[in-house]
């Protein structure tokens, strides 16, 4: 629950999460979504806040908190999932868990942009949907994967 999350908040994780969200936005700014194609993906403020909150929640039970995370960033387009990048939250810390953040393109834009993924001129920024999925995998345990759909 929200009050319990407030009790577990680590000020260092708060700062790290802000920097992590900046790194995520930078990666999305140069996302490879097709063969030799890059586009600028825009992350709505609501999505940014939701992702940040979810990543903090998933990190609060970890030995090193958010510092021990490896983040794989993916964008789902149709049935395909495109790798956008990998971020070690704190490269000086041995990772204890891996988070895979799967973002989705705003489906209302798909008819307008489907031709843009073939070869051709550069195109305008694309907006992401507010829905996302996070998959957490502990790197020091044989526990099952935890999949959160938001």
UniProtKB/TrEMBL annotation:
Query: What is one GO cellular-component annotation here?
Result: mitochondrion
Q: Any idea which GO molecular function terms this record carries?
A: 14-3-3 protein binding
* Database matches in InterPro entries: RTP801-like, RTP801-like_C_sf
What is the protein's major site of localization?
Answer: cytoplasm
* GO BP: apoptotic process; negative regulation of TOR signaling; response to hypoxia
Presence of keyword Cytoplasm: yes
Where would you find this protein in the cell?
Cytoplasm; Mitochondrion
**UniProt entry keywords in alphabetical sequence:** Apoptosis, Cytoplasm, Mitochondrion
Q: Does the keyword Hydrolase apply?
A: no
Q: Coiled coil: which residue ranges?
A: none
The cross-references to PANTHER family, in alphabetical order and at most eight, read:
DNA DAMAGE-INDUCIBLE TRANSCRIPT 4 PROTEIN (PTHR12478:SF7), DNA-DAMAGE-INDUCIBLE TRANSCRIPT 4 PROTEIN DDIT4 (PTHR12478)
Family, per the entry? Belongs to the DDIT4 family.
Please give the name of this protein: DNA damage-inducible transcript 4 protein
Specify the species: Podilymbus podiceps (Pied-billed grebe)
Gene transcribed to yield this protein: Ddit4_1
